[in-house]
Amino acid sequence: MQFGGKAITHSLRPTEQELWFLPLGGTGEIGMNMNLFGHHGQWLMVDCGVTFDEPLSADSDGAMGQKHDVVCADPSFISRQKEHLAGIVITHAHEDHIGALPYLWRRFKCPVYTTAYTAEILRRKLSSSNQGAAIPIIEVTTNETIDIGPFSVQWMAVTHSIPEPHALFIQTPAGNVFHTADWKIDPKPVTGKPFNHNPFKLLRKQNVQAMVCDSTNALRSGNSVSEGECFVGLSELISHASGRVVVGCFSSNIARLITLAQIAKQTGRYLSLLGRSLQNTVGAAKATGHWPDDLPMVDPYHTGYLLPHEVLAVATGSQGEPRAALSNLANDSYRLLSLDKGDLVIFSSIVIPGNERSIEKLISAFRARNIRTISADESALPIHASGHPCRDELALMYDWVRPQIAVPTHGEQEHMLANADIALQRHVPKTLVGKNGDVFVLSPNPKLLKNAVKTGRIPLQQ
């Protein structure tokens, strides 16, 4: 993880001949993405995310400081020169890409560009803070190109674990950048269309100077599991369960929720959502046409009155968050539902690094009450699919796009180095591996300016 940095240089801006990439968060770490592209004295922000239950700093011995519930990258560099910020683009609605914007927008006061589903999620977040009408949100569609200051931005559809994820093709007179954001190659994504590689093959004719690329799974060989493959594994577990079944998964994963709703219908159970964030994301999916009309849910207040074999509940807190629904269920303190011996809790999610102890504590609490648990790595069949590309997928994307420079991001150092190694194997001429606060000069003379801008973290109050 990246903590701290040198003094902020607020006058640092690219010239008319230059194209820069400057990450303030999300490069050298996983989470709280906040990226800046710079050209002709102007900046374009891509994503504005958070992370959870994290410290703000580490001391000289590497010991972590006090943890805070919600943390984001320090935006001081750009907020103190907001007159040069042309706009903010949000690639998709995951919290590590959108979660800080409701807190920070007053520091920027510029237009926000995103697609309909992500805009709906953002408006719901803003309405709870009574500033929904204040933020100009401009909705865009797949393949649309919008001029934002000196940047011409095209939205390119990808597949990921959420509706309407997009990569960005950013064109400037000083050079072009392909920013992948979060993606994978998924032939059966459950929601949205299967991955289409043709638009990315066409990029090789667009003289892509740099490809700024997701590195999360760069250490994993092969290809990622398709979201559609989770149906069989989850159906197998749920159909053989005799008691109540509770599934913990990321609340933003609409595809997984649709799969579980289909399984509930197939097995004669009633699906309910335990946790406000789950209800919010499904509400947004319904409002934007991403939820099938033939998949009903029951009011969570009715779940406790159902017979055990009729219950299929999805709960927040798969990472062991102490105030989430799963933790309250484990402690038998959830007011809408109580679990008994023989009931089953399925963890349809990965363990995010740093959350191991919290999840182990949660599982131990269930097992102490003779409630069965099964995690993704204990299941013979897939019950979770990552939303990020493995090595073979990264290699294909580099082959299709053929950039002059590879810029790995969205990962810790080992992930980014592995991504850079794949790029070199696919004959990308140059790689630039840096961290938050480094200026990646992409043109005219590619180089890395180390520690050019102070970076850090700030806590956010919910």
UniProtKB/TrEMBL annotation:
Keywords: Exonuclease, Hydrolase, Metal-binding, Nuclease, RNA-binding, Zinc. The keyword Metal-binding applies. Coiled coil: none annotated. Residues 31-234 form the Metallo-beta-lactamase domain. SMART domains: Lactamase_B (SM00849). Pfam families: Lactamase_B, RMMBL, RNase_J_b_CASP. InterPro entries: Metallo-B-lactamas, RibonucZ/Hydroxyglut_hydro, RMMBL, RNase_J_2, RNase_J_b_CASP. PANTHER family: RIBONUCLEASE J. This is Ribonuclease J.
